[in-house]
């Protein structure tokens, strides 16, 4: 989501609260500090400000009350910069005041960190950045039955369904229309009635038995009473938690990378290869990894990412592996940060022989085994597969995905190169949920995106990478929520901020 998109949580809007601890370099007088929050654009000298805190007089331990309201976008890297000033006058010109230091972070780091980050300024001061507030929204579940509805089908009974409308902006009135369903879409109107949330909240009672009235029939027939009745059978309200609630409650996203090392990628030493390591620019695999990894790493506290390769002959005996560690350590394939994954990937290109076939099932099952050990909602696993070609083990991959759909796990597939990716689209169950051996996947957990759709080249390539990240990560929040809801897992309360350590 972009800054203009709808936030993925209900009102009230999220906000960032800023407090600072004393800056040790100021020892001669009490400093009236102020924090200025800006988006961080390293290459842009003219940086717009989101806002400024109030000035706290005569305090080295200020607790700022001013809130900064920002749109939270999981799919974007939202860079922030915090500047701390010692205010010497009422002038709005920041150059007139003493600059104490600055801190950099992303909004994702603030949301996903446990505890919240405390980023030191150059002079040694520090500040707490409290994650956004989020209030669960109530969701009402209603069950109805109908009696003696008008018959609309000539050769049979009606096939009724109801359509609900909110009549007033404040939601005080609810209009319900009842139709007889027709295959060609020309549904027959049976009648309508109005109610309100307050009435429905009474639950099953004589207040919630409604006459279904057809206004045209009422005007034409003097003895017309109604076209049947609709009765409320049950009414239940429960809190609908958001992705942000789980992240703030401590749920960690465990990110695993799987890279295609099959021979169809071309000889890595040749510029035509998708794996070619140019001294001037990143190849498609590296760009896709960086675009997705730079965002998702904010939600993994230890920043250790397992990285696997598949489809290559690996040393020392040259056997074909579809699950080899890029760092060479089979007992611990985790790399430190996205930079560590990129380094291990480049090192692997120099020590393995690209071969084949293109098998996905081993890496899917590898992550599924880890996900199966943590089913309590404290961790959610995301597998990023970057590949160039057609899947060789389609049946096994479908079976692996169907089994993984029961686990806290999502799969992102990025297709690089110019191959046809029909099989990948089939795995992405947006239209038709995939199945294996007669079993349908419990959830849609796969998102496929072709890399070429976002590779414009030239100066706009960076913007294309941001678009790629938005697309491939767009379904992760809903997929996480679908798992939590299916298992009845509620987010734990937000951990309290630990007590502040006094400065030396």
TrEMBL record:
This is Uncharacterized protein. SMART domains: VWA (SM00327). Residues 111-133 are annotated as: Disordered. Belongs to the copine family. GO terms for biological process: cellular response to calcium ion. GO terms for molecular function: calcium-dependent phospholipid binding. SUPFAM superfamilies: C2 domain (Calcium/lipid-binding domain, CaLB), vWA-like. InterPro entries: C2_dom, C2_domain_sf, C2B_Copine, Copine, Copine_C, VWF_A, vWFA_dom_sf. Keywords: Repeat. The keyword Cell membrane does not apply. Pfam families: C2, Copine. Transmembrane segments: none annotated. One of its GO terms (cellular component) is plasma membrane.
